[in-house]
Amino acid sequence: MKITHVEVIPIRIPLKPARHMVTALGWHTESKYLLVRVGTDAGIEGVGEATVMPNWSGETVWGAKAILDNVLAPSVIGADPVDIEEVDRRMDKTARHNWFAKSAIEMACWDIAGKVANKPVYELLGGAVRPLTIRCRFSMGAYEVDRARARALELVAEGFTTIKVKVGGKAEDDIARVRTVREAIGPDLGLTIDANCGWDVDTAIRCVNALEDCRIALNEQPTPDGDYGGLARCRRETKPPVMADDMCFDMIHARELIRNNACDLISVYPGKNGGIRKSKAIVEFAGQHGVKCSIGSNLEWDVGTAAMLHLVVACPNMAVEEFPGDILGPVYHEVRIAKNPIDIRGPLVTLSERPGLGVDVDWDIVREHTLSM
Predict the structure, then answer these.
(1) Which end of the chain has the least Cβ crowding within 10 Å, N or C?
(2) Domains annotated on the chain, with CATH
């Protein structure tokens, strides 16, 4: 079987107003992403998703479409889509980085491989090591304190037992927001923070230590991108476990984090890491060095979310029971793109047992939301 064609479709879908995301990186009120359809000479098609954000990986919907159309897609024509390693090799040979763009083709190939084998992707990854229903945390934007308090109470009522609060701005505002959420949710529920590289090292240490009485369960990406020593210092001088996210896109980054003893956990997900296979490799490498992993999010749609779930279900070192991750992206959006959407009920997300990624895209809805380039 060979890949015969790749179609790249840019789409724009707004977020629900109540779920607009505010972080140290700015506002996220709409998603301009890409869907990728990979066709074969056997008539079997796979679908992938590129959740590109310029302030995250540097990739834009326009740039990702251009490199997919003109560089990455031509490189995989004629390849066997079931040979994921060869597909990755071809793409890596033609272009560096561009993690999210590459991941879309790679996801689609896993989708094809699962359909060929009549198995869900997690079976191709080694089989399920945990239930297909995963409990998630909710990622709350960096809201002013009154909105943060009200939102926290709503989330508790919806059944969330772990809430992540975005920080990384003005220290006093961040501290007040986190304290407000802790007061609202009570002493027993999980509370994590995420600065998205927004604090400098000294500010991170000062803020986290000032919040010691709030019992922070996880301190995600508190320090600037690329400063492995700074992240290690923050880990040494504060108590909560430290998670690296924004500074770990590939295996090179993972090795540097571990070499510098910079973190207790690494946040992985297929889009950020260039695909499911590369995410799995990072998870296994981290586990060999005593570093746990959990799942992060770029507010994916159903295709990307399915890829994340297959990874979580198949990897023992995805410590989502101890450190819940984010797999709720589809319900942040005003429109779902799937005929058979991922089952998301409050904090609980359930993966199907259908072959491949298990998501059938509703192409009529996609056409309604196609972005003019």
Answers:
(1) C
(2) 3-118+362-368 (3.30.390.10), 123-350 (3.20.20.120)
